[in-house]
Amino acid sequence: MLDRQDTTYFNLQGSMIYDPAINEDVPLVEVPILAFTEYWQNLLKLNSTFLDYIRGQHAEAGYTSFYEEHFNFPPNGVFPSANNSADFSSRIRGLIQDAMTLQEPCFNVYHITDTCPTLWSWNAEDAFPLAPFTQAGIQDPQLNTGDSGPYYNLTVVRDAIHAPVGREWEACSPNPVFTNPSNATSGDGSPRAQLTVMPGVFDRTPGINIVANGQFDMLIPSNGTLFSLQNVTWRGAQGFSEYPPNILQIPPSGINASDENGPWGSFAKIEGVGRSGEMGKWVFERGVGFVDVAYAGHGVGRYNAAAMFRIIEVLLGRVGVEEGFGGAAWSVDIAASGL
């Protein structure tokens, strides 16, 4: 879009990506996976003998020393390629995932706090449980009288997000999403976005660029995304000068969840109230921000919709970066009937 220089159709001002695959799997996943596992060990409760084994495997592969040497703020310089950087298998993460599944059959690599039984999933085979947004037949008489879901197929939602009417929404694409698969794997064999696409977008867009990651995402750990960003050069400097120092403050929705006679009725008790308060950490330098979102997994909006909405407000300039991530009031009345 930027190369076309067509401001009529492609007047790109900024960008926003969540839990992105911007690097090869080794530096993105394998290198930071030990730090991720140890940080969440009080939650994961992995066997200590197995954890020692993983530490040994991680060190033997050279990943521990690579992480310690290059995960610095500011970075010491451009990173070299990690050992086995072209390996898409994520072997060590796979070992951890297998161990977790043995002790917790409902373990979800997309959101590590999921446990059995999955009471809130309408479909046990759905890797992305999101009831009621994924289930057919959902109706919201406040917004869409006579219109039924899934939620993102509702006419009013399609209109709001400019989605085509003739295409059905699905939680996850049934078709391969990688446009340039390598010969050896199903992974994308294109050049790494962190060294190609991202610097060009960051340098050529006048607005805000935001990269966000869910803290509970083990598929792409937050530090893997941040580690990759530390090797990106934009607007005259490489990476961020400091580890995210700021607390992400999300304002209250203003919805009274106990008011069954209010405009949202009993719906507010279940789905109408987003999380508020301290919801992660963030850093913003030279037009680019990184946001580490608390409670969220691989799908930030799925698990922390309030944080996602605030990030969109900042991206669109409805609130400033400092004010928006610092807990300023919403730019719209969240509690209003019919929103």
Automatic annotation (TrEMBL):
UniProt keyword ATP-binding, yes or no: no
GO biological process terms held by the UniProt record: proteolysis
Record-level Gene Ontology MF annotations: serine-type carboxypeptidase activity
Keywords of the record: Carboxypeptidase, Glycoprotein, Hydrolase, Protease
Coiled coil (residue ranges): none
Signal peptide: none
Highest taxon in the source lineage: Eukaryota
UniProt keyword Protease, yes or no: yes
Gene3D superfamilies: alpha/beta hydrolase
Pfam families in UniProt: Peptidase_S10
UniProt record similarity statement: Belongs to the peptidase S10 family.
Listed name of the protein: Putative carboxypeptidase cpds
Species of origin: Diaporthe ampelina
Lineage of the organism: Eukaryota, Fungi, Dikarya, Ascomycota, Pezizomycotina
